[in-house]
Amino acid sequence: MTEISLTTPLREEVVRKLRVGDLVAVTGTVVTARDRAHAYLAGGDVRSELPFDLAGGVIYHCGPIARRTPAGLTVVSAGPTTSARMAPYEAAVVERYGVRALIGKGGLPEEFLDTFARLGCVYLSAYGGCGALYARHIRRVRQIFKEEEFGSPEAFWVLEVERFPAIVSMDARGGSRHREVWERSREALRDLPPA
User: Fold this and answer.
1) Cα–Cα distance between 157 and 152 in angstroms, integer?
2) Active site amino acids
3) DSSP code of 78?
4) Would you say residue 191 has pLDDT above 80?
5) Alpha helices, H only, the chain
6) Cα 18 to Cα 21: distance, rounded to the nearest angstrom
7) Cβ–Cβ < 8 Å for 18, 3
8) CA angle at residue 94 from 155 to 102, to 5 degrees?
9) At 1, is the pLDDT very low, low, confident or very high (cuts 50, 70, 90)?
10) Residue 194 has pLDDT above 80, yes or no
11) Is the pLDDT of residue 185 over 60?
12) What pLDDT, on a 0 to 100 scale, did the predictor assign at position 93?
């Protein structure tokens, strides 16, 4: 399968061409945001307070672990956080700030397919347990925003990434790998003999 290179900021027409199952490699800026950061973004339009732009951007559900070196911060692990935790805020964040892709673990509820179709956004799955692998694709930490207020894992980390690997699991055309797996699993369970 061919890998699709994506460079931030992402253009809507590029995102709308992506399909469930596409392997992608993201290069450019990725901003981490977990529960606290999402609540902050969804609470009102705080664009003027942000030291970064999320338009055409990629949000990674992640709380990186880094070590301080004489050269600055080096991310040693950057595994994905379960995305369903961000679901109460995510639609507002995507619409308000023009986010084009979300990276996380486990997918989002089915109703997000309508949001993605309407706004031109996709969900990219990253694999749990691969934090050290993903850290290798982070070239540098450009800044950390709200670290003192939110704490390090919940702060916004603005990362410069190169060929960060992920797979499209919810696209802007109503496709969902999570739904496909659920339906296949349900069929397989029906075929099992009674206990």
Assistant:
1) 9
2) 38
3) -
4) no
5) 12-17, 35-42, 87-97, 112-119, 131-135, 147-150, 177-191
6) 9
7) no
8) 65
9) low
10) no
11) no
12) 97
CA atoms of 61 and 78, how far apart (whole Å): 10
Over its C-alpha atoms, the chain yields an Rg (Å, rounded) of 17
Residue 144 tokens, joined:
């950390």
Q: Are the C-beta atoms of 108 and 123 separated by less than 8 Å?
A: yes
Q: Kindly report the backbone phi and psi dihedral angles of residue 186, in degrees, each rounded to the nearest multiple of 5, phi listed first.
A: -65, -40
According to DSSP, the residues that pair with 7 across neighbouring strands are 27
Q: Which two tokens stand for residue 167?
A: 């797979």
In the block, tokens 């349900």 appear at: 186
Number of domains in the chain: 1
How far is it, in rounded angstroms, from Cα 159 to Cα 95? 22
The distance in angstroms from the start CA to the end CA of the chain is: 40
- How far apart are the C-alpha atoms of 117 and 131, rounded to whole Å? 30
Query: How many Å apart are CA 183 and CA 70, to the nearest integer?
Result: 51
The confidence band for 57, taking pLDDT boundaries of 50, 70 and 90, is very high
Q: What's the CA gap between 107 and 110, in Å, rounded?
A: 9
Give the domain range for residue 30.
3-191
**CATH number for position 120:** 3.20.130.10
**At what angle are helices 87-97 and 112-119 packed, to 10 degrees?**
10
C-alpha 54/C-alpha 31 separation (Å) is 8
User: Contact, 161 vs 7, CB < 8 A?
Assistant: no
